[in-house]
Amino acid sequence: MKSILGHSMLCLLTAGLLASPQADAGEVAAGKKPVVSIRRMSDLVKELASPKYAGRLPGTAGDRLSLNVIVNEFKAIGLVPAGTDGYLQPFTTTIVEPDGESHGNPENPLLGERMATSNVIGIIPGNDPELSDEVIIISAHRDHLGQTPDDIHYPGANDDLSGLAATMELARMFMQHKGENKRTLMFVAYGAEEQHEMGSMHHVAHPLPNFPNENIVLMISIDMIGLGYDKWSSYTPAQLNRYANTWFDEVYNGVNDDSDDYSHEYPPEKSGTFSYDAGPFGKIGINNRVFGKAEGIPHYHKTTDSWENVHFGPAAIVTRTIFDFLWKVDQDPRAHAKP
């Protein structure tokens, strides 16, 4: 399938809006900073939230259609396949009702069915001879809740196509600096997150060849950044830089539950289920951070979580700030992989 987003280079978030006049150590020089395309993010969310994909329930025709779109986007970006079958890491899951109090699609006609689906995984290989084996995972989830018995679909635009669009933009941004990244950057669109995080649990339980869990120095999950971030439109570059710097400082500070109003770390928990894809990684002690807001956010796990209700401007600013944070993590000269 041809990339559906190749024409969408309009509405770029300008570099001047978010770039500081001078770059500190570990920052991209202002003149080289890549930009985020609001239009491209919007186009991806609009497409995959449409009825054509029927709510992207794992193992359904809509899930397979969305899988093809994501794989073709990974190819267009230039990511190297890193799954067990090209870009794919296949697994099976049982369709259940989501965790939490949302009770999304409680009358799902496929409840209890065993379904086959996949994670989608691509990398930008690292270039530092001492640090290239270290892995930074940048992820979102691609699945949602499917359809009701009367064929009303759950679009899942904010949850989590907003995160998927951000992950795609981050991949494009880092590709503009291909050859400069020290560590291997792994971009993942997890399947079956709404099914008790089965995609990320499968990844942790079945590490990919050449990418053992002990080499993962950071895992981030971008999950629901399309609402709740409106204040970011008024933040100054200095305020945005403070967020990026604080997140970087907290990666290796030995505290496993740092948080702010917009993100948090997932501490190690002896739990069988989790609320985010970062959970299974946090459980085994891997540094992680979740970006997203669910509490108090309208349309959560409802059929109204549509493209029209996503605030793409603030989401693009958050994405740009996540890039600055990840650049600092990647360029850190210290080795952090576990022996």
UniProtKB/TrEMBL annotation:
Keyword Hydrolase assigned: yes
Protein's recorded name: M20/M25/M40 family metallo-hydrolase
UniProt GO BP: proteolysis
One MF annotation (Gene Ontology) recorded for this entry: metalloexopeptidase activity
A Pfam family the protein falls into: Peptidase_M28
Limits of the Peptidase M28 domain: 119-324
Record InterPro entries: M28_fam, Peptidase_M28
Signal peptide from the UniProt entry: 1-25
Superkingdom: Bacteria
Alphabetized UniProt keyword annotations: Hydrolase, Signal
